[in-house]
Design brief:
The structure is a single chain. The protein is of the alpha+beta class and 154 residues long. Helix content is 42%, strand content 18%. The strands form two sheets. A three-stranded mixed β-sheet has the order 1-2-3. Strand 2 and strand 3 form a beta hairpin. Helix 4 packs across helix 5. The longest helix has 24 residues. The two termini are 42 Å apart.
């Protein structure tokens, strides 16, 4: 299974923010859309990722408020990325290794979407469920030997 399979099911809705945008505006977008991340874009290029992790760190570092903070000062400016052709097992390893919960999907320099750890876990569980159903159906349809047939002698 590849990342493109997840994107096909998930759809293409993307939420972005500019690096100069006030952090408070980005937080309002995240809360209003019930999303855990925003891709930070500048002049059509991926320049970072803003997740609830960076937001919480900024709030704690500023005694409970965001003040006049802008996205650029708190974003992850070197986010982990993958391509639509990346295998899901590789994405799982990458996300676990870097403790990343969100990953932009890039095709060359074009942002194709964002996948979350939840998306990856759901895809794996769905795939395993499908495989389980197929195996159970195969076993249920196993040909039954007739009563007169004998097992070969070894």
């Amino acid at each position: 299974m590849k990342v493109s399979d997840i994107l096909r099911v998930k759809g293409g809705t993307l939420y972005t923010v500019s690096p100069e945008q006030p952090l408070n505006d980005a937080i309002q977008t995240m809360a209003g859309r019930d999303i855990g991340s925003l891709v930070v874009m500048s002049h059509g290029e991926l320049v970072g990722m803003l997740t609830f992790r960076e937001v919480i760190q900024a709030v704690v570092g500023n005694d409970g408020s965001v003040g006049g903070t802008v996205v650029r000062t708190v974003m992850d400016d070197a986010p982990l990325t993958c391509t639509p052709e990346t295998e899901i097992d590789e994405v799982r390893r990458m996300m676990l290794q870097r403790h990343a919960r969100y990953m932009p999907v890039m095709d060359q320099r074009t942002l194709m979407g964002v996948i979350s750890f939840y998306d990856v876990a759901k895809a794996v569980v769905d795939s395993q469920d499908f495989e389980n159903r197929m195996l159970k159906a195969y076993i249920r349809d196993w040909p039954v030997e007739s009563e007169g047939a004998q097992a070969p002698n070894n």
